[in-house]
Design a protein that fits this description.
Elements (H helix, E strand, L loop, with lengths): L34 E2 L2 E2 L2 H15 L7 E5 L6 H12 L5 E5 L10 H11 L1 E25 L7 E11 L4 E6 L1 H9 L6 E6 L5 E7 L13 E2 L7 E11 H9 L7 H9 L8 H17 L2 E5 L1 E5 L6 H12 L5 E6 L3 E3 L6 E3 L4 H4 L2 E5 L5 H14 L3 E2 L1 H13 L2 H17 L4 E2 L1 H10 L3 H10 L7
Helix pairs in contact: 1-2, 3-8, 10-11, 10-12, 11-12, 12-13
Family: Belongs to the RuvB family.
Subcellular location: Nucleus
Enzyme class: hydrolase
Length: 455
């Protein structure tokens, strides 16, 4: 008798550099734990970030900017990711790198503004009258075509909707029948129809029809509660960039010329300042009426020293506008030239912009902290490492860098498997360490063997 194990069809999560970061890891009083939420050390920086997240949640932080500065591999990006975890999924977070602004298609300032608008959310609340339920019958009533000939035209549609509380039969306009056909609605589907606009939305198939297969094309939903006809509050989350993009595309006609125009159009549409001001007016009107609320999110610009003077002057203006997100910069540069100029400045950022920033420093990790981080990474990557090997890896991290030590974990696990072991021991790490050079030892080799290389 053959016994087979059934493999799960759920996808395994891909392990990235910051998979282990789950939050900032603070107690209720805002003090940081030495080891919490995947974070180790950096207590001062984490407490500062905790205060910032509280201010963002309270809506007292818009239009301000923060700079996370520290040597490479000290957890600057990890801090930004931790802040987003703390803010939750509803707050927009838009990460970008300084070099992203140098696009061949659109202006530098346009790329910056686009990301600014992506980081500001708008929560629109609408109360709609809807008919909601599971379709029990769907029968179009036909009549002879008014224009003569043999064709039949739809006069009206009879649709039966069922909820937990009861059923209702509706007589609908023929235009709604077209919408039903477009959504591919069949008997047994759960749908809702908006009373004022006649828009039809198919939610899914009723779970009374659910089968026991693991993998199915259908999404099964429960039977709606309450009456068939009800008032429903619909909350929609959009970003300002979504509104810009929706209004920027020209709505062409159906003639050949407009089709040609759409084909020949460049990939990106530049959104004009005038259009954005018009959208801001409408948004402000919505906010005043209480229909919508603004959700200022976070724009994270990594490697901020890659921006040039024009971008920095634009950022100065953008930070002052009434609709502005929280901007977090990160850089690992000391005193260096501002890109494109001979002016030397701290972190490669002009002094007038630095003056606006709250600066958070990240410190280099000590040996004990490095060992803790390596232990967390090994756990995330599902590897077993003994104490001696972790201590050896910590030494490598001190001599080379933490990133290099973390990168040695995966190859060492493969070497251990080749040697017929499940756990990684010091010998595996020594073997892998001899195979790969880190940045410092590579530079040392280059210096020692200068005459062999072209310079």
């Amino acid at each position: 008798m053959k016994i087979e194990e059934v493999q799960s069809t759920t996808k395994k999560q891909r392990i990235a550099t910051h998979t282990h970061i789950k939050g900032i890891g603070l107690d209720p009083n805002g003090k940081s734990f030495d080891l919490a939420a995947g974070f180790v050390g950096q207590n001062g920086a984490r407490e500062a970030s905790g205060l910032i997240t509280d201010m963002i949640k309270g809506g007292k932080m818009a239009g301000r900017a923060i700079l996370i500065a520290g040597p490479p591999g000290t957890g600057k990006t990890a801090l930004a990711i931790a802040i987003t975890h703390e803010l939750g999924t509803k707050v927009p977070f838009c990460p970008m790198v300084g070099s992203e602004v140098y696009s061949s298609e659109v202006k530098k300032t346009e790329v910056l503004m686009e990301n600014f608008r992506r980081s500001i959310g708008l929560r629109i609340k609408e109360t709609k009258e809807v008919y909601e339920g599971e379709v029990t019958e769907l029968s179009p009533e036909e009549t002879d075509s008014v224009t003569g000939g043999y064709g039949k035209s739809i006069n009206h549609v009879i649709i039966g909707l069922k909820t937990v509380k009861g059923t209702k039969q509706l007589k609908l306009d023929p235009t709604i029948y077209d919408a039903l056909l477009k959504e591919k609605v069949a008997v047994g589907d759960v749908i809702y129809i908006e009373a004022n606009s006649g828009a039809v939305k198919r939610v899914g198939r009723s779970d009374a029809f659910a089968t026991e297969f693991d993998l199915e094309a259908e999404e099964y939903v429960p039977l709606p509660k309450g009456e068939v006809h009800k008032k429903k509050e619909i909350v929609q989350d959009v970003t300002l960039h979504d509104l810009d993009a929706a209004n920027a595309r020209p709505q062409g006609g159906q003639d050949i010329l407009s089709l040609m125009g759409q084909m020949m159009k460049p990939k990106k549409t530049e959104i004009t300042d005038k259009l954005r001001q018009e959208i801001n007016k409408v948004v402000n009107q919505y906010i005043d009426e209480g229909v919508a609320e603004l959700v200022p999110g976070v724009l994270f610009i990594d490697e901020v020293h890659m921006l040039d003077m024009e971008c920095f002057s634009y950022l100065n203006r953008a930070l002052e506008s009434s609709l502005s997100p929280i901007v977090i910069f990160a850089t690992n540069r000391g005193i260096c030239n501002i890109r494109g100029t001979d002016i030397s400045s701290p972190h490669g950022i002009p002094v007038d912009l630095l003056d606006r920033l709250i600066i958070i420093r990240t410190e280099t990790y000590g040996p004990a902290e490095m060992i803790q981080i390596l232990a967390i990474r090994a756990q995330v990557e599902e590897l077993t490492v003994d104490e001696e090997s972790l201590a050896y890896l910590g030494e490598i991290g001190q001599q080379a860098s933490l990133r290099h030590a973390v990168q040695l974990l995966s190859p060492a696990s493969i070497v251990a498997k080749m040697n017929g072991r499940e756990s990684i021991c010091k010998a595996d790490l020594e073997e892998v360490s001899s195979l790969y050079l880190d940045a410092k030892s590579s530079a040392r080799v280059l210096q020692e063997q200068q005459e062999r290389y072209m310079s």
